[in-house]
Amino acid sequence: MEDLFVSGGTSGMGRGLAMHYLRRGARVTVTGSDRARGEQFLEDAARLGAADRAAFIQADLTKLADNRLVLDEVKARHAKLDGLVLTAMRSYPRRTLTPDGFESTFALYYVSRFVLSYGLTDLLERAERPVIVSVGGTGMTKGAIHWDDLTLQHRYSLIRATLQAGRANDLLGVAYAENHKRGKTRFVLIHPGYTNSGTNHVKQPWRTVMRIMGSLFARPVERSIQPIIRLMDDPPAQPLIARDRSRPVDLSLPTLDRANALRLYEMTRQLLDD
Predict the structure, then answer these.
(1) Are the CB atoms for 247 and 191 separated by under 8 Å?
(2) For residue 209, what are the domain limits?
(3) In angstroms, rounded to a whole number, what is the distance separating the alpha carbons of residues 29 and 264?
(4) What is the total count of domains within the chain?
(5) Is the bond into 205 cis (omega within 30 degrees of 0)?
(6) 39: alpha, beta or left? (left if phi > 0; alpha if psi -120 to 50)
């Protein structure tokens, strides 16, 4: 793994993976919305002697314009990509729309990953064994795509929005593999389990509650990223695999339906073209 880009790479599992590969000599670019955390990442990279191999792009990935800026900057920095890691995700207690008209959870957890995956495919295909890793809730069967109400104008809730975006993320992997059967890039959908990956984005009093729950029940980041590292170091032969921690997920699950994946792909393309 020589060249790596991590969305959501300034905290949690994204940061853990970025630092792991910096230690191993890779060139790593991360993006995040918080400048202070980005600067901390660069300082930590410098302490490893990796200042010239680390880069931070500040971006709000709920916005299409920022995703396109990220694409341009990654392409300017890297001649190829061995790995693309998608970890950026946030839940919104109240329904909010992005400037592009997407519900914010859906925009970050799905639309951004769509734009980055397809937008960086050319760089990935220049590598010998390229892999995309999308971290989410793969294997869960709750939640659905609300085809007639993607912005959840009716009956919005944090859980409903998160589950819809999670199922969309699953379908992204299915459609990507279907659309790139002749390509080298492998797509890995992985559920890391409940991980103590940070609560800075959560408002009080829920931040305190989540910190307590995390300290009692969650896996540490270093443990949760180990299955991901193994898959990145030795990408699968198949175009798509799904894992719940280290356990294979059945690709025939309804949440990984090919027809729904291609339907969402076409719908997303139309929305992005409007």
Answers:
(1) no
(2) 3-273
(3) 29
(4) 1
(5) yes
(6) alpha
Q: For position 57, which CATH number holds?
A: 3.40.50.720
Residues 74, 80: Cα–Cα separation, whole Å: 9
> Residue for token digits 């519900």?
103
Which sign does the torsion angle of CA 193, 113, 263, 235 carry? Answer: negative
pLDDT digits (tens, 9 = 90+) for 15-51: 999 999 999 999 999 999 999 999 999 999 999 999 9
Alpha helices (H) along 136-225: 158-179, 206-217, 221-224
Neighbours of 152 (CB within 10 A): 18
* Phi and psi, residue 59, nearest 5°: -160, 145
Closest CA to 254 of 137, 139, 133: 139
Nearest-angstrom CA–CA distance, 213 and 142 = 22
- Tokens representing 167? 């199922």
pTM for this entry? 0.91
Q: Does residue 215 have a pLDDT over 90?
A: no
The DSSP secondary-structure symbol of 203 reads P
- Walk across the sheet containing 131-135 and list its strands: 54-58, 27-32, 3-7, 83-86, 131-135, 186-191, 240-244, 247-248
The residues with which 131 forms a beta bridge, in sequence order, are: 83, 186
The type of residue at 193 is G
